[in-house]
Amino acid sequence: MVEEVEIQSMHETLQSFFGFDGFKGNQEAIIGSILNGNDTFVIMPTGGGKSLCYQLPAIMSEGTAIVVSPLIALMKNQVDAIRGFSNERGIAHFLNSSLNKSDIAKVKADVLAGRTKLLYVAPETLNKEDNIEFFSEFKISFFAIDEAHCISEWGHDFRPEYRRLRPIIDKLGSVPVMALTATATPKVQQDIQKNLGMMNARLYKSSFNRPNLYYDVRPKQNVIKEIIKYIKQNTGKSGIIYCLSRKKVEEISEALKVNGIKAAAYHAGLDAKERAKTQDMFLMEELDVIVATIAFGMGIDKPDVRYVIHHDIPKSLEGYYQETGRAGRDGGEGNCLTFYSYDDIIKLEKFMKDKPVAEQEIGKQMLSETAAFAETSSCRRKFILHYFGEEFEESNCNGMCDNCRHPKQRFEAKDDLELVIEAVLEVKEKHKIKDIVHLLMGTLTATGKSYKHNTLEVWSKGVEDDKDEKFWNAVLRQAVVNGYLQKDVENYGILKVTDKGKAFLKKPHSIKFTRDHDFSNTDADEDDIIASGKGSGGADQVLFGILKDLTKKIAKQNNLPPYVIFQETSLEEMSIQYPITMDELTKITGVGAGKAAKYGKPFIDLIKKHVEDNEIERPVDMVIKSVVNKSGLKVFIIQSIDRKVNLEDMAKTKNMKVNELLTEIETIVASGTKVNINYYINDVIDEEKQEEVYEYLREAETDDIQAALKELGEDDYSEEEIRLMRIKFISEFGN
After folding, report:
1. Residue 181 burial by CB count (10 A; 0-12/13-18/19+): exposed, middle or buried?
2. What does the pLDDT look like over 416-465, one tens digit per residue?
3. Cα separation of 584 and 603, whole Å?
4. Which of the listed residues 600, 622, 644 is the one where a domain comes to its end?
5. Do 340 and 470 have their domain in common?
6. What is the pTM (predicted TM-score) of this model?
């Protein structure tokens, strides 16, 4: 028990050093536990005040507390924060690879002089022999192992160096250990305790419920436009956008900057100085948005992040929980918006194929939980908390997730639940969700064959008109979340029937479930959507018709086919975006500056009049400026054509097929840039053929290749010849 005197001095230190009036949650008990020399295990969600649990006892204790932390950015941030409370700069230091020799000497001098109360180290630093020698020269008050989930292979951020911490701690004598994590499933918790040799530690587990966070999962369609729209609706608020690849981070941060948003990229490929500068600018509110890989955020103690957007679904629910947990740490508004397509899950599974089998199994199990969370139509908060081993009543969500705010229709699931429980028992509790689904649907897989599933009584009993694989997935997932079935994590998610499930089977009762969301049609490539100008809502059909008429009129005046003026995809996008200035018109797909200058004025005048006459509220924030293609392919093609380089050689240089190169040239020409490929055409198409195609293109209503082939004769002309002549024709007459 913590003595009265100790409690008093804890409160005094809290007030005098940190300036707080009282402890939050379990903080007081945790601090008392470590001060009494007990091993202490802390599971506390982001924003719960985890760092104070080791900072305050370190200040109070004799000697130096060693804090093991996985990120350099995190250490710097924490050290700066502690120094901010004290006049003694040496009160906190970090020891990692970012320091030079004189920095290291200064750190060691302060520690040995007894000035340093907290020494932050990377696990790699702790593993070095000369550092172990240094640690034995001073009194260590206790070890604090932050982000302790890094120890577990079942954790979302496994680091092998963390597995080697216990032997080093043992070398340094009998010192109490505190392990802290913001995310731990029961399985990860057990793994941490086992590996750190602290099975008898005092365990303090706070609720994982963050009532101020709003969880929202949307289909992955037209994501960049959706993100920009969302940020513009939340102007001046701080936000973080997470992506899985550095390429996507760069692409999105460029798109945000081009659209007037104060944003910056953050990933491990940038040098340390730039990352530190970006982090400081975000903290100082010189930047509103950080676009990052998961390397960002662990070191950020910014309480007023108002939204966290996931461009890509994370690899695990722990990762998702920790990243969303960076929103609303001050208890204020915190919106967690995720864009999801099942296609992303398939991509992530493919990335695992070179890993060891056991690692693949763990990874797939984590991904299946993440997919289940994204697709579920039941309360998202309940789903997450259940995953972390916490019971939660759906009604307490208070509409703070999209499914509770906009509930889907529920159906009577008594018979369906009975059937899935019977199926799990009939396969002797040896199979995962997907195997049970195949069994109920009568789909004979390799697994089903080897276990003779087609001979069982429940085989194909789930086949009904309105019940497909998605339906049975939803029933099984909700059976797990509601405690009728449970997953055996040790065996990669094999289903077992719980006592509650057995009781239900004996005495079935009415129960309502919901069908899952369908995210199967969200896999269109985002770049294709942006390129085509589609996917951002229905076009204004009246305006589209008027624009088509105007195109025909201008085409007639110039004795040209309408498609040479503007293609239908461009007109459709104009009917969605309502551009009323030349600058806005050039942002429309297929409209370059040249084409806008040549034909644009009557179009923007007409759109402006249509908008005013019909009092249309333009989606100004949705006129997305596209980012210039940094690959330089366009410049390379234009320069090569100017030098009269053979198209085959050009394609070879860029490792492309000729038809892919033609597509690029068509895009360049459609936007209004003139190119002259006569030198190549004259080599490959005879003069008579050229004239015949030219004559056809001049009269044609459409530039469709198949229509041209049909008219001119598929035996006489190739698709490539017609494409080449179309490029020449549009370039000469349209541009």
Report:
1. buried
2. 999 999 999 999 999 999 899 999 999 998 888 999 999 999 999 999 87
3. 12
4. 622
5. no
6. 0.62
The answer on pLDDT for 166 being more than 50 is yes
**Residue 579 counted as domain residue:** yes
For 175, the 3-state DSSP assignment is coil
At residue 349, what are phi and psi to the nearest 5 degrees?
Answer: -65, -40
pLDDT at residue 532, as a whole number: 32
Dist. CA 735–CA 731, nearest whole Å: 5
Residue with the larger pLDDT of the pair 677 and 558: 677
Does an H or E element contain 613, and which? Answer: helix 593-613
Question: What is the number of structural domains in the chain?
Answer: 5
For the segment 4-29, what is each residue's pLDDT rounded down to a tens digit?
557 788 999 998 888 888 898 899 99
- Last residue of a domain, which of 186, 205, 224? 205
Has residue 523 been placed in a domain? no
The sign of the CA dihedral 15, 21, 27, 29 is positive
pLDDT at 509: 94
Dist CA 131 CA 120 (whole Å): 13
Residues 6+ apart with CB under 8 A from 662: 647, 720, 723, 724, 727
Residue 495's Cβ-count burial label (10 Å; 0-12, 13-18, 19+) is buried
Residue 494, beta-bridge partner list: 488
- Distance separating alpha carbons of residues 65 and 94, to the nearest angstrom: 12
Q: Kindly state whether residues 399 and 419 are assigned to the same domain.
A: no
Query: What whole-number distance in Å separates Cα of residue 434 and Cα of residue 469?
Result: 9
pLDDT at residue 477, rounded to an integer: 83
Q: Do 234 and 350 reside in the same domain of the chain?
A: yes
Two tokens at 283?
């903290």
User: 64 phi and psi, to 5 degrees?
Assistant: -120, 130
461 contacts: CB under 8 Å, gap ≥ 6: 419, 423, 440
Asked if 500 and 484 count as a contact pair (C-beta separation under 8 A), the reply is: yes
Backbone angles phi, psi at 272, to 5 degrees: -55, -40
DSSP 8-state secondary structure symbol assigned to residue 636: H
Residue 628, domain member (yes or no): no
* 131 within domain boundaries: yes
Verify that 398 and 413 share a domain, yes or no.
no
The domain in which residue 421 lies consists of: 409-514
How do 238-242 and 263-266 pair as beta strands?
unpaired
Burial 314-334 (b: 16+ CB within 10 A, else e): bbbbbbbbbbbbbbbbeeebb
Residues 655 and 694 in one domain: yes
Are 89 and 135 in a shared domain? yes
Neighbours of 388 (CB within 10 A): 22
Q: Looking at the predicted structure, is the pLDDT value of residue 533 above 70? A: no
Whether residues 146 and 256 fall in one domain? no
Measured on CA atoms in the order 227, 228, 229, 235, is the torsion positive or negative? positive
pLDDT in tens, 276-319: 899 889 988 899 999 998 755 555 668 899 999 999 999 889 88
Q: Give the residue from 591, 547, 606, 599 showing the smallest Cα distance to 572.
A: 547
Task: Kindly report the length of the chain.
Answer: 735
DSSP output for 98-161: T--HHHHHHHHHHHHTT--SEEEE-HHHHHSHHHHHHHTTS-EEEEEESSGGGG-TTSTT--GG
Pair 496, 419 in one domain: yes
Nearest CA to 698 out of 653, 730, 731 is that of: 730
**Residue 156 confidence (pLDDT):** 64
Q: In degrees to the nearest 10, what's the CA dihedral of 194, 197, 203, 208?
A: -40
Q: Domain containing 123 — which CATH number?
A: 3.40.50.300
